[in-house]
Amino acid sequence: MPQKIILLLILVFVFNNLSCSVSEPDAEHMPLDTKPASGDALVRLIHAEPGILNPILSTDVYSSDIESLMFDSLIERDPQTLEFRPLCAEKWEISRDGMEYTFSLRKGIKWDDGREMTAKDVLFSFNMIKDPSVNAPHLRNYYNDIQSVEVIGAYTVKFKYIRKYFRALEICGTMPILPEHIYNSGDFNESGLNRRPAGNGPYSFDKWKTGSEIVIKRNKNYWGDKPFIDKIIFKIITDETVALQLLKKGEIDMMSLQPLQWEKQTGAEKFLRRYDKHKYFLPNYSFIAWNLQKEPFCDVRVRQAMTHFINRKKILDKLRYGLGVIVTGPFYVNSDEYDKTVLPLEYSPSKARQLLAETGWKDTDGDGIMDKNGKKFEFEFLIPSGTDFSSKLATIIKEDFAKEGIIVEIKNLEWAVFVQNLNERNFDAVTLAWQMPVESDPYQVWHSSQAGKGSNFIGFRNDKADFLIEAIRETLDKKRRIEYCHEFHRMLNELQPYTFLFCSNSLVALNKRFMNVKVYPMGFRIIEWYVPGSMQLYSE
């Protein structure tokens, strides 16, 4: 399954029409025959409904998780070594100067309707990404430096760059590919295909019941190694309490757990007989974002004060039971790009009050609320519904800031509406998280060109930062590139456009009947899983 090259928005925790035909076997009494077998279904919970299923348009992790099982790209990373290996392309060549990338496609790869995938589909997909009328600014920025894509033959395609880019092979090779003959008519942004996609991957779209579930089924005509599991049912349940109840009843096979659920609510012997619990790190970080285009957060001293007011250690221990680490920048905390010498701004309300006083914010009328030029210090804090962590975090922020004379109004929105507010830049402060690829490029989130329409929704604009971001892109020497990353990291820690929070552990419960489950550096690989015949629960 190819990993999406862009950064993906996730809620502030990390994850990841069948009939029951037999009773669930007791996992304590495993069958002697555990041979791989086809069949059964995986019922997986997702905490929010995806907006669309189109790998060129979508920006959230829920869409990406499902799309990754239905769309294959030219190459993918080996799950263990993270080196690139062939997928739809059986081989590739890179010119000596690193400016041209030529891929040779396998023959016989079929789209869902039976038509063969060709190099023209690659060109069509590239043209869609580059089309300014297509809602893909988050993706388009990764392809700005590609001068052309040339179809050499039915199964050969060449990408030409105008400048060097350290992720060039990944960008070309993992580009989302759609079938031209299906997607080339009508309004691409509003197409009905965005809710019934046609792909070329190990699974095909089956159905989407709004507010209930999305189902994909095994693609029997898949060109590669076919998955064992017949169907994957993505249950959409936003209420965490309800989700946990269904998990305990055995109606869900796989679910991301909240720290409270991990620590306090899933330790019973009965639960552990049915489920394995997996804990691991993936590249991600959570944050509070300040809208730099509005008062008072356009002033760096105000943003620094906000971070000094927030006791991140207490929040990590109280809300996440210490399951994560505090971060200070936008790179994966366990990567070379992350500068471990950068220390978090300390929790210091006195420093915060001093900084605010310098900007003119103080309680001048003795009513307990800070004010400036006759205006009270108050702001709206947007949180996405469906996460206990966001809700509790917002409550702590509201209570702690109230003690300092700052009014916080919490605004809880459904995911789709929440994202719309971000896209329209209609917020004061929000909390969210980013999920990253193995090698992260800060351009999408931090370059000033993305501030108008794109993932730089806070409106961060800084000439020095732009220089560093562009230097990171063009520098192939890893040692030098890391130096640029560290300098950029230090700059963000100083400017505090985000209050960086945590890289959180992924916490997952998975039914024991699934075999061959491995945790790779980038997570699970569902297409390898199987359920022995005697333990299968579902049949069509």
Structural overview:
- The chain has helices spanning 61-67, 119-130, 137-140, 168-173, 180-183, 240-248, 259-265, 269-274, 300-309, 312-320, 349-358, 388-403, 415-423, 443-446, 463-474, 478-495, and strands at residues 8-10, 19-20, 41-46, 75-77, 84-86, 89-94, 100-105, 146-153, 156-161, 203-209, 213-218, 231-236, 254-256, 275-281, 284-290, 324-326, 371-372, 375-376, 378-384, 407-413, 429-435, 498-500, 502-511, 538-539.
- By secondary structure, the protein is of the alpha+beta class.
- Helix 15 packs antiparallel against helix 16.
- It is globular, with a radius of gyration of 24 Å.
- 48% of the residues are buried.
